[in-house]
Design goal:
The complex is a heterotrimer of chains A (421), B (181) and C (927). Chain A is built from 15 helices and no strands. Chain A has helices at 2-6, 9-47, 54-63, 70-87, 95-120, 127-154, 173-196, 210-240, 248-272, 279-304, 307-314, 344-352, 367-370, 378-386, 405-418. In chain C, the strands form 11 sheets. Chain C has a 7-stranded mixed sheet with strand order 6-5-17-16-15-7-8, sandwiched between helices. A 4-stranded parallel sheet of chain C has the order 12-11-10-13. In chain C, a hairpin with a 2-residue loop joins strand 18 and strand 19. In chain C, helix 6 packs parallel to helix 18. The chains are: A mainly alpha (421), B mainly alpha (181), C alpha/beta (927). The interface between A and C is medium-sized, with 13 and 12 residues.
Chain lengths: 421, 181, 927
């Protein structure tokens, strides 16, 4: 089935990018909301139910997300991971490793979702529930980091053969930067949710009390910080990206996303000063930012993982001698290798067959017509092969192929064996 | 809100803040663009003076790489073939094709072909093909599947980290002086 | 987190460092194909070697030219060549600078008023031919004056002179050894300079002859001396009034009063002739003709104690193969003819019996003239008798006394032509200048000694619109007579070589670079009658009144001809360590008498001779002597000896006074004495040599196959600085100029340090990176640019270096050099760059690498053949050019290697051993 799928690689790639574009904001929303809720819940837990400052309650309510998309998110994530594995280099990561990753991610998401259901029900979280939520968040974040690094190692196919000996190659600076960018986007979208949340317990018509204001401010701060840091992270990514992966399109996307971030900042400022109130535009812009980011990854992969670039990796190279301590010194010089037996046929095919056939004229004359003339005097043929001179005006001169005496002899022998008079 | 007198300094501060944020973003856009410029992301794609199809020669005809790049087994540089090497066959073969006509034109003018270089190392690096061929490295390990490229591309970074990872895994010397001049 | 990770992180944080570390791939955007694959031997990225001959001085040492991508990048000695035996002096090394000199003349120039107008070759030739025809009609004589010429060019000149009716004047060389040639003519009827069999001598006495600097064939002599010292236990006494590099290297230096050489030689001759061993050597008439002289007179005259004199005489009597050579400043003075005659007569007594003089391999000074011939030419010019005057490869204006006004008189010729590659004082006065091709751009041959034919072959196409002298003469011949010897000089050479050599000889000539043609050994006999007549004219003269000036030839510029090469200005004078500029040396005591210090100008005057130069205090120089290097002589020699025609180079009765001006002299040595540091250990330093057990936090270096090391035998080192020049060229070390030297920013990777003891005896030590096992420079580098490689080299990774200079501060040997600037190489000098080496830019530290590029090449050859590098396969540039084989390089882990055996000798020590740096450079004490 796999080969069949791979004939539609182009469509599959588009499907993947759509899935990623879909899943990333949702995942970020889930991750960010849960983290903020967990944090405020743990604060509440620590201070005790009675003495909780009102703004923590506000925060908890505002961050308290809806859970209706959670199943969709989990399913899409798993689908895109499978697609990823199918499209990009099935040999690169073993099936086992990929399954472990999927299982881990599912488990992490499961824990998170459990926690979220509790939060939606507005039940107080005890210590165990907090721990479960925290573990979920951590696992999901770790899986995201692993995925970012995977995406990054895809951009340097030349390192794949060495991954088994040098696993640390997997952790690239570029991968970390991509992960950091994901976190920034998460902050931005969470901040947006906090700022414009409609799940406020207070009607929107009356001015929110001070507690709600604090929550809004925290949201605005999160967004603003993330948006301001965004261009820095992006610049770093552009500097770190493997040169093969870079290109005009990538640069254009990077610049576009910086401009988007600038526009978002502008919107945020306007909102804060009370000039406008455009939660939908703001949200849409951040989603656009997400898409830009996901598309950049796609562009980079596409520039790198061309069939010709990958083809060299399929070449069988001799199994590397495993590095030992102090391996920088070459091993003891072995006695000179036995001279390779010269194979006339091989040499002929490599050097001569381009221009010569035995029975027909190609560039040079048919060999059956010329070789027999040398039978009485093989040395002349050998000499001719080593230093050709123009013989027949009807043909172009044969180039000097730089054959050694042994090679020329081997070829001459082969010619005599195979030429028919 | 109602009091206008104390709002003034606030307005100025706000303007200043807006300006700072604006210039911050502008600066970073510029920085990203210049970083790309430095990395050569904006460089025009290299076009070779003659569209030489490696697919025809290396794949269809199955010519060995060192048929044309003759220095590869003996010397540091593999060498781009001399015009006369091309012409040893193409004086007779396919002389009517436009690209071959270009080639013949170079010969008539006595002008060397100026190929665009794709695999170039910094000038403080000493690299020798001969040693790598002797260590039985296939050409494709560094050059990719050239026989499948209609126009050759550079498919490996040729950066030090990449060299080192291979040297390390094969037990090749990792002394700096091996490569650094 | 280790240091490396920390730096990686820092780099990441700043981001910009990552961008800057992308490496330079610029300027290599194109791959240019060959039209036709190059012939065998010229392959991109691979060096080819061509044998040739050096023409920086008349000695003509054999060289091999290293070619990379069709251009010459390095010269080395031709190991088999009979003249130089594989060495090459600093002037020879610098010949490449002549080839690529930015100011090389590129096209014929015609004088117009005060300037020049470039003209075509055709026009130039037409003008010369017309002028020659015209002046012949006006009964003016056409003349050809050249520098030392031999081989085919000399033959062509003769044919040219014959057919075109042009007077071929005697060749002009400033160091023409005329007095010696005249003496040999008088004694044996052979006006030639013999080859001295120094390598077979066990006692050498040189009187004034500066064997190691400018005397006839310095590189060859240095090699012969080294061989004789090693194999024959040669003892060498040098007698001179001043201090030369030659004197500093002699086993005994006898300082005599200037002008007393004749008295001393006379006394020696008289004393030795009485001894039984030599009693029969001289006929009675000659003994009778010798003026009588007492020991007391000789002592008084020469200023030497009687014990020295008698000891000298005794050693000459005892030695089995004594050799005495006079020359240099001893024969270039008013009594020079006498000195030469007596010296040569002493040779007849001492040296001829064991065949220490070889007139069958005589130096090719056969057609050389002297300053009297130049004076004659000057007279003809004054009398308007000269038509066309062609001056080739020589500089008579610079080397004639100023009072002759040769420069002005040259204008009186109908047409004066200078053939040269770089402007000289002469070419600045002539009407027409014809640029000559360099040695590396043409075919030619020379005959440095009779019977030794040495090949000059092109290594590259001419850089400029220049022609060889042979081609010019042939074309002139064609224009004047309507037919020429051959169409081109190359054809002429082919014809001649076919006649001269057999087929096998010709093959050897092209491949090995020289052919030695055997000739039966002839014996020489003393011509009694003219000798007696000449001896009767000898009158023992009084020494010159003090203070005296001695004008010394320069090891850096020969007779001044090489001073135009910037590289030689950069290399310190071995004795004074002054680099750029001129100076006059005087002893510290004399200096305090005049109240001058280093750099304070001193004006020396005598009737019609005046020169003002900054003073340089020279330990070991006798009081009452001013040493004036020939480059510092701004106005030509003070006069000539009318008897011999040699320039006067010793003048007594000099008046000196400080002018009060001060010049900053770039003096590279920190101090003239070792200050008890034991860099070259004296017996006192050898006591109590114990150093603490080595403790280190760093892992012990472990070498598996190679531990490169160098042994430098200080007994053999003569301080000639050939290694320094070789290092400069091999490693493309930038030439930075005077201003930088004054700031202490010289770039030489290898330097020669002269150290003087209390008695003024000099010893030399080459100082280079010591490649220490526990190198102090390595742990202080924050970026791992300086590190120890598994073969024991202390490697500097240039593109890693960020220029903190911590390493330099921590190096006890002061051998690391910092690039303060992006050093400019005026085109076409950049063609000389060694492509095997990384270019260093501003802000990088650089230093000796043990010629790591050569080690790498050897690794590759050995790797191809699957074996280890053999002993002697890697020869660093410095060791290659050393005329005395003082430097040995090799692998310490190979117990059979020359270096491993050398370091086991008891003379071995390492500099600053007590510091525990464990250097890889082993020195062998001089005593």
């Amino acid at each position: 089935m796999l080969p069949e799928i791979q004939t539609h690689l182009e469509q599959l790639k588009w499907l993947l990018i759509i899935l990623i574009a879909l899943v990333c904001p949702l995942l970020a929303l889930m991750l960010g909301g849960t983290t903020v809720s967990l944090a405020s819940a743990s604060l509440k837990h620590r201070t005790g139910e009675k003495e909780t400052p009102p703004w923590i309650d506000g925060l908890l309510r505002r961050a308290n997300p809806s859970v209706e998309h959670d199943t969709l998110v989990v399913l899409t994530i798993i689908a895109s991971l499978l697609l990823f594995k199918i499209i990009y280099r099935p040999q690169l990561f073993s099936n086992a490793a990929w399954i472990v990753l999927i299982l881990l991610l599912t488990a992490g998401l499961g824990l998170m979702v459990c926690c979220r259901y509790r939060l939606v029900d507005q039940r107080p979280l005890d210590r165990t529930a907090l721990a479960i939520g925290g573990a979920g968040v951590t696992i999901v974040a770790a899986c995201c980091l692993a995925l970012a690094c995977t995406e990054s190692i895809l951009l340097t196919p030349e390192f794949w053969p060495h991954l088994s000996h040098l696993p640390y190659l997997f952790l690239s600076w570029h991968g970390f930067t991509r992960f950091a960018e994901f976190l920034l986007l998460t902050c931005a979208i969470t901040g947006n949710a906090l700022l414009f949340s409609t799940t406020s317990p207070y009607p929107t018509s009356i001015p929110p009390p001070a507690a709600d204001c604090v929550a809004r401010r925290i949201g605005a701060g999160l967004s603003l910080g993330a948006l301001l840091l965004w261009p820095l992270a992006l610049g770093l990514e552009m500097a770190l990206i493997p040169s093969l992966a870079g290109g005009r399109l990538l640069t254009a996307l990077a610049v576009a996303s910086i401009l988007l971030a600038a526009f978002c900042t502008f919107l945020l400022g306007m909102t804060l000063y009370g000039k406008i109130h455009a939660p939908k535009t703001f949200f849409a812009m951040i989603i656009l930012l997400f898409w830009c980011w996901a598309f950049m990854g796609h562009v980079a992969r596409e520039r790198t993982l061309t069939p010709v670039a990958l083809a060299g990796l399929a070449v069988e190279t001799p199994t590397p001698a495993l590095a030992t301590e102090g391996e920088s010194i070459p091993p003891e010089v072995s006695p000179s290798k036995a001279a390779k037996v010269l194979n006339g046929k091989e040499l002929f095919e490599q050097k001569c067959s381009v221009c010569h056939r035995f029975d027909q004229r190609v560039v040079g004359p048919p060999l059956n017509s010329v070789v027999p003339g040398y039978r009485s005097d093989p040395e002349t043929l050998t000499a001719f092969l080593m230093q050709p001179v123009k013989r027949n005006p009807n043909y172009p001169a044969m180039p000097n192929l730089g054959l050694t005496a042994d090679q020329a002899e081997a070829i001459a022998d082969y010619l005599f064996q195979n030429a028919e008079p | 809100m109602s009091d206008k007198a104390p709002k003034r300094p606030g307005t100025r501060l706000r303007k200043l803040f807006c300006l700072a944020v604006f210039s911050y973003f502008a600066l970073l856009v510029l920085a990203t663009l210049s970083a790309s410029l430095v990395r050569g992301f904006f460089a025009p794609p290299t076009t070779q003076p003659i569209a030489f199809p490696h697919t025809t020669h290396a794949d269809k005809l199955n010519l060995a790489c060192d048929f044309c790049h003759s220095g590869v087994k003996q010397e540091a540089s593999a060498g781009v073939p001399a015009l006369s090497v091309c012409l040893s066959c193409h004086r007779a073969i396919a002389t009517d094709r436009p690209e071959i006509e270009k080639l013949l034109g170079y010969e008539r003018r006595g002008e060397p072909v100026r190929w665009q270089r794709l695999h170039n190392l910094p000038d403080f690096i000493h690299f020798t093909h001969q040693r790598h061929i002797q260590a039985e490295q296939p050409c494709a390990a560094c050059h990719g599947a050239v026989e499948r490229m209609l126009e050759v591309q550079r498919v490996r970074s040729l950066k030090m980290g990449w060299c080192i990872s291979c040297h390390r895994s094969r037990g090749a010397p990792r002394d700096c002086a091996t490569c650094h001049k | 987190m280790d240091r490396r990770k920390f730096l990686q992180l820092m780099g990441l944080v700043s981001g910009t460092t990552l961008l800057s570390s992308c490496g330079s791939e610029r300027n290599q955007k194109e791959l240019i194909s060959y039209l036709v694959p190059p012939e065998d031997g010229v392959r991109p990225g691979t060096a080819a070697w061509r044998v040739s001959t050096c023409s920086e001085c008349p000695a003509h040492c054999g060289i091999t030219v290293r070619l990379r991508e069709g251009r010459a990048v390095k010269l080395e000695g031709n190991p088999d060549h009979p003249v130089s035996q594989g060495a090459l002096c600093m002037r020879g090394q610098a010949a490449l600078w002549r080839l690529y000199h930015p100011q090389r003349l590129r096209t014929p120039l015609l004088r117009t008023g005060n300037g020049y107008r470039p003209i075509g070759w055709d026009e130039a030739m037409k003008r010369i031919a017309e002028a020659m025809t015209a002046s012949a009609e006006k009964s003016r004589t056409n003349m050809l004056l050249t520098g030392s010429t031999s081989g085919s060019l000399a033959a062509l000149q003769e044919r040219f002179a014959d057919t075109c009716r042009i007077d071929r004047l005697p060749e002009f060389e400033f160091f023409n050894h005329a007095a010696l040639r005249q003496a040999y003519q008088l004694l044996y009827g052979r006006p030639r300079l013999p080859r001295f069999g120094i390598e077979d001598a066990d006692l050498l006495v040189t009187v004034g002859a500066d064997l190691l600097e400018t005397f006839i064939s310095p590189v060859g002599y240095a090699h012969q001396l080294s061989v004789a010292r090693r194999e024959k236990g040669l003892q060498w006494s040098h007698i001179e009034p001043h201090l030369s590099l030659t004197g500093a290297n002699a086993d005994r230096r006898l300082t005599i009063r200037p002008g007393s050489e004749a008295t001393l030689l006379l006394w020696l001759l008289q004393t030795l002739a009485k001894r039984r061993r030599y009693a029969r050597r001289l006929p009675q008439q000659i003994l009778d003709a010798l003026p009588k002289i007492s020991l007391a007179r000789a002592m008084d005259n020469s200023g030497l104690p009687g014990s020295s004199l008698t000891e000298l005489a005794r050693s000459l009597e005892k030695a089995r193969h004594p050799l005495l050579i006079t020359g240099g400043v001893a024969t270039a003075q008013l009594a020079g003819g006498q000195v030469a005659l007596l010296g040569c007569l002493l040779q007849w007594v001492l040296t001829v019996p064991w065949q220490g003089l070889d007139f069958d391999r005589a130096e090719n000074f056969g057609r050389a003239g002297d300053l009297r011939d130049l004076q004659q030419l000057n007279l003809s010019l004054q009398n308007d008798e000269v038509g066309v005057l062609i001056i080739s490869r020589t500089d008579p204006v610079r080397h004639s006394p100023q009072k002759w006004r040769l420069d002005e008189n040259l204008r009186r010729a109908r047409l004066s032509i200078a053939m040269t590659d770089l402007h000289t004082a002469t070419s600045r006065t002539t009407d027409l200048i014809l640029p000559l091709t360099q040695n590396f751009e043409r075919w030619d041959d020379v005959e440095p000694r009779i019977g030794i034919h040495s090949l000059i072959q092109p290594a590259m196409a001419p850089l400029h619109n220049t022609r060889s002298e042979g081609d010019i003469l042939l074309e002139l011949q064609q224009r004047l007579t309507g037919r020429s010897e051959a169409a081109t000089y190359e054809k002429y050479l082919q014809q001649r070589w076919k006649k001269l050599f057999s087929a096998s000889q010709l093959r050897a000539f092209i491949n090995k670079g020289f052919v030695t043609k055997g000739s039966p050994r002839t014996t020489i006999s003393l011509r009694t009658k003219p000798t007696v007549a000449a001896l009767r004219r000898i009158a023992p003269s009084e020494p010159l009144p003090a203070p005296a000036t001695v004008i010394t030839g320069s090891i850096r510029s020969f007779d001044g001809r090489s001073a135009v090469l910037p590289l030689l200005g950069e290399i310190p004078d071995p004795l004074t360590t002054v680099t750029h500029g001129n100076w006059v040396t005087l002893s510290p005591r004399l200096a305090s008498q005049y109240g001058v210090k280093d750099g304070e100008e001193l004006r020396l005057t005598k009737t019609d001779f005046a020169v003002a130069q900054p003073a340089r205090l020279q330990p070991g120089l006798p009081d009452g002597i001013f040493g004036l290097p020939i480059d510092s002589l701004t106005s030509g020699p003070p006069g000539i000896d009318p008897a011999t025609g040699e320039a006067l180079r010793v003048i007594g009765g000099i008046k000196a006074h400080p002018t009060g001006k001060h010049f900053a002299l770039p003096i590279l040595s920190g101090s003239p004495s070792q200050k008890g540091r034991g860099i070259i250990p004296k017996p006192i330093h050898r006591k109590g040599k114990h150093h603490a057990e080595h403790r280190s936090l760093y892992p012990e270096p472990a070498y598996r196959q190679y531990r490169w090391a160098m042994a430098i035998d200080l007994k053999r080192c003569i301080g000639c600085a050939a290694c320094v020049a070789s290092c400069y060229v091999e490693n493309s070390v930038p030439v930075v100029g005077r201003e930088e030297h004054l700031k202490g920013r010289e770039m030489s990777w290898l330097r020669i340090e002269p150290f003087y003891d209390d008695q003024g005896r000099a010893s030399f030590i080459p100082m280079l990176c010591q490649h220490c096992d526990y190198a102090p420079c390595e742990p202080v580098c924050p970026v791992y640019a300086a590190y120890h490689n598994p073969e024991g080299l202390n490697v500097q990774v240039y593109n890693r270096c960020v220029g903190t200079r911590y390493c330099s501060n921590n190096c006890p040997y002061k051998v690391r050099r910092f690039n303060w600037w992006q050093h400019k190489w005026a085109p076409p000098l950049e063609k000389m760059h060694n492509p095997d080496l990384a270019p260093r830019s501003k802000g990088m530290m650089e230093k000796c690498t043990f010629c790591i590029q050569r080690i790498r090449t050897a690794h590759e050859t050995a790797g191809k053949e699957d074996r280890l590098i053999r002993d002697g396969e890697v020869i660093p540039a410095c060791a290659q050019s050393c005329p005395t084989d003082a430097i040995t390089f090799g692998n310490l882990l190979d117990p059979q290697s020359a270096v491993a055996r050398l370091i086991k000798t008891p003379r071995t020590y390492r500099v600053f051993e007590g510091l525990g740096t464990e250097p890889a450079v082993y020195y062998l004490r001089p005593d």
